[in-house]
Design goal:
- The chain is α/β, with parallel strands linked by helices.
- About 40% of the residues lie in helices and about 20% in strands.
- It has a 6-stranded parallel β-sheet with strand order 3-2-1-4-5-6, covered by helices on one side.
- Strand 1, helix 1 and strand 2 form a beta-alpha-beta unit.
- Helix 4 runs parallel beside helix 6.
- It is globular.
- It starts with a strand and ends with a strand.
- The mean pLDDT is about 95.
């Protein structure tokens, strides 16, 4: 079984913080292959973080910076990569840009989508409204146009 993951952040961010956890993306070694779609130009070398995939083969696909300004333009590139991976399941950890890309891939390629939500996004929006208005506006855009799309297309949601 193959799993394609759209994580919240590039894996290098977790590596640099010392937050690499054994089998995090493959509990009970259910999957044989884990492919990570990383929205960065260059991510960490797979050999340094292999432990996150347990016994599965790990491949990190660094596809370049994708954000709220360019996410629609890069969609076909991402779909092509995921199509080549040919996963059995796609998992995303947020209903933002990563979630939108994951849900578009899942819909276009007819692959089940599993969405994990790890924070309360309403609380995050309130925090950014006071501290970072630019991020707040991006999150408000996501709330209105991206989150509903992602959540409606999920086959499974876990909180």
């Amino acid at each position: 079984m193959k799993l394609c993951i759209f994580p919240n952040d590039p894996i290098i961010a977790y590596y640099e913080k010392g937050e690499i956890k054994p089998r995090y993306y493959n509990p009970n070694n259910f999957f044989d292959e884990i492919d990570i779609i990383s929205l960065t130009k260059k991510d960490v070398d797979e050999s340094k973080v292999k432990i996150i995939a347990g016994n599965a083969t790990l491949k990190i696909h660094s596809i370049g910076k994708i954000n709220i300004k360019n996410y629609k333009k890069r969609l076909n590139d991402v779909i092509a990569i995921v199509n080549e991976i040919n996963p059995d399941v796609i998992r995303t950890y947020n209903p933002f840009i990563e979630g939108w890309l994951a849900s578009k891939c899942a819909t276009n390629l007819d692959i089940p989508l599993f969405v994990s939500l790890h924070i309360q996004h309403d609380v995050l929006r309130k925090l950014y409204k006071k501290n970072n208005f630019k991020k707040y506006l991006a999150l408000k855009y996501c709330e209105k146009f991206i989150e509903p799309y992602v959540l409606k297309r999920a086959n499974k949601i876990t909180i």
